[in-house]
Amino acid sequence: MTTATSQELLIRLLDPANRADPYPVYAQIRELGPLRIPEFNLTVFSSYQDCDDVLRHPSSASDFRKASPMEGRAAPDDDGEYGDPSFLFLDPPDHTRLRKLVSKAFVPKVVKALEPDITALVSGLLDAVEEKGDFDVIADLAHPLPVAVICRLLGVPVSDEHEFSAASTLSAQSLDPFITFTGQAPDNLDSQLQAESWLYEYLRDLIAKRRRDPGDDLMSGLIHVVESGDQLTEQEIIATCSLLLVAGHETTVNLIANAILAMLRRPQQWAALGADASRVHAVAEETLRFDPPVQLNGRIAADDLTIGGTNIAKGDTMMLLLAAAQRDPAICESPDEFDPDRESIRHLGFGKGPHFCLGAPLARLEAAIALSAVTARFPSARIMDEPQYKQNVTLRGMSTLPASF
User: Fold this and answer.
1) Alpha-carbon Rg for the chain in angstroms
2) In total, how many domains does the chain have?
3) Lowest CB count within 10 Å: 129, 162, 324, 325, which one?
4) What's the mean pLDDT when you consider all of the chain?
5) The predicted structure's pLDDT at residue 181
6) Res 24: pLDDT
7) pLDDT the model gives residue 189
8) Which parts of the chain sit beneath pLDDT 50?
9) Which residues contact 59 (CB under 8 A, 6 or more apart)?
């Protein structure tokens, strides 16, 4: 395999023409084994075992500032224009400290307490669909539900939810490795930067308001949480809230929508969940495996390490194609079939190790309530037209999914 061929396969993943079904490209990469692209100090892993090993390895770092500079390219900036990175891109001990502080304001009882609100939100959204007479799964359910939940968690006023949601969608695109492999900036780069700037200033203003007038929201909790005399700084709160917004919104939109699409394409699965709500957890877990909201991830080698016989030099980047790994025949029988009834469902949808997704319980709860409700309310739902997809590669998801009930 030549470097040019490896890079060509990655560019195909970025091609919008493959957004609706990237899985043949993922399969081709997985069959070829780890891809090496020396120009970018990059190794691409696509088997389940390799990706799992990287996520668990003690020398697998999340802090991109530890990456070696690429040929002809400068090393990553320390902090960037808007301050410290979120704990998603930090390693111990900084990651451990921040996660511990955030966890104290994000305990399970907070998630459980949201269940009545989420149920009411879903019911209201489906009432509106029924009254309107048509149904776009994204605009009418999968998108408004998570943004409403995360805004309530953070204490964002209802009047600001629309602009908050738009900024989240654009910020999510910044996670894509577009510039690295094409050498070109995305068409909407200016919009992405403006969204990040707006979000930064909005959160800073919201922090100031909550300092003056605390509430029972997560933002107030983050401001006042204390562990052994330690508190979060303003920059850390902003970075954490930005992470919760993108990770807690875009990924949950995709989880709900991808599950609905998979079932609409298999009417027997739609009917089965509508008749038996206890199936919903298996449906959500199979969706996380079959069509995951987070398609790829990245790590840096903090030291020389070996993954599955592949040697990685200190400072090199590792790209993990989670969507390819979860359809690895080595760990899953008939991996290209959507089957919530399979005996074992293994996935990396929420990560592994110290960076296991803090918001996993909330995402699972939102998906469970939405999926069980929509299948029970509209037992005869069917797809009206093929879905359209957003530009996002890392957080791949649909922009429209027209359906009839």
Assistant:
1) 21
2) 1
3) 162
4) 88
5) 55
6) 96
7) 76
8) 72, 75, 78-82
9) 301, 302, 303, 305
| 357 within 8 A of 350, measured Cβ to Cβ | yes
Q: Tell the residue number behind the tokens 């120009």, with chain if given.
A: 39
* Cα(401)–Cα(259) distance, integer angstroms: 12
Domain span holding position 345:
3-404
Closest CA to 121 of 155, 154, 147: 147
The three state secondary structure string of the chain is: CCHHHHHHHHHHHHCHHHCCCCHHHHHHHHHHCCEEEHHHCEEEECCHHHHHHHHHCCCEECCHHHCCCCCCCCCCCCCCCCCCCCHHHCCCCHHHHHHHHHHHCCCHHHHHHCHHHHHHHHHHHHHHHHHHCCEEHHHHHHCHHHHHHHHHHHCCCHHHHHHHHHHHHHHHHCCCCHHHHHCCCCCCHHHHHHHHHHHHHHHHHHHHHHHHCCCCCHHHHHHHCCECCECCCHHHHHHHHHHHHHHHHHHHHHHHHHHHHHHHCCHHHHHHHHHCHHHHHHHHHHHHHHCCCCCCEEEEECCCEEECCEEECCCCEEEECHHHHCCCCCCCCCCCCCCCCCCCCCCCCCCCHHHCCCCHHHHHHHHHHHHHHHHHHCCCCEECCCCEECCCCCCCCEEECEEEC
Look up the CATH number of the domain holding residue 46: 1.10.630.10
Q: How many CA atoms are closer than 13 Å to the CA of 196, on its beta-carbon side?
A: 18
* Confidence (pTM): 0.90
Q: What six digits make up the tokens of 196?
A: 């990040």
Q: What is the pLDDT of residue 106?
A: 67
Strand partners, 382: 404
What is the predicted pLDDT for the residue at 349?
94
Pairwise CA distance, residues 89 & 65, whole Å: 9
Tokens in use for 269? 């699965």
Q: 241 with 203: CB under 8 angstroms? A: yes
Annotate 378-402 with b (16+ C-beta within 10 A) or e (fewer).
Answer: beebebeeebebbbbbbbbbbbebb
| Start-to-end CA span in the chain (Å) | 49
